[in-house]
Amino acid sequence: MSKRPSYPTGLPARQKIACFGQRSGFGLIVLIAVLLLAAVNTRAVDRPSPAGDPETNRVDVSPSDTPREQVTVILLHGMGRSRAALWMLDTRLRQAGFQTLSYAYSARAEDIASITSDFLKFIRGNVNTPVYHVVTHSHASIVARLAFRQGYPPGLGRLVMIAPPNRPPELARTLRENPIYRWVTGESAGILASEEFFAALPIPSVPFGIIAGNRGQRPTLGEPNDGVVTVDGTRLEGMSDWTVLPYAHNFLVTSREVAYHVIWFLEHGRFADQTELSRAMSQREPPPATSSDRKPEKGTTPKNIAQ
To answer: Which of 57, 154, 180, 210 has its C-alpha lying 20 to 30 A from 282's C-alpha?
Structure first.
């Protein structure tokens, strides 16, 4: 068993981090990554905070029957990232005709309950369309699920979770005692490693689809994964559809293929099949707003799995 590094008492935090980096090559790599992420991670400064009690989420208009220009898609980035991380997905959704909003948060500076409350205030203060959808990446799926406990404002249609940890990620278990990891993730360091926390998370009460990645392939995870989250660890009871695509964790949100699947699910309650996807990809433009006779599927069998 490797011995955790110790530091002389009284050292400032920066010197402790430097000391850790000198004693561990891995720690130095993590430190560099942390500093890069911290440089781009920004907190939203334009969040309104209107008063009002949480309301039970409901859809006043059918999402599939609502023109795209009357639908807002709210994007939530992953832990340690910023709104810029979802810029390409945001752009593709706007090109497809949707209105978009991006909510920014800092998992290091804020506790998960405060992030969730602010997220719901953000929705109440910024969504001006009859229908809105939520699309999350990674850690943000936890915020989206917790929001069901507090209550979404009226109009929520569908939810797409990209690379969500729906059980404690093995990487979080491994790194939870790492001082740099704990500094970056704040309260989330303990939450992400807790079986009890994940078991208590609400199951979304609206149709939701999950997109997993199977590239990245961190050998220490012992099963197919995207480098951060295992494929099987993204599954969640009650999902309307589930698909596995050949991308690593952070590259899922930059993929044109993923954007097409997101758009298809928001409109049809399921992901595109191979024929629909190939047709849309060959046109090199966002999929058109067309109806489909195919019913949504329960997410028991993955589609589009790269061998």
So the answer is: 210
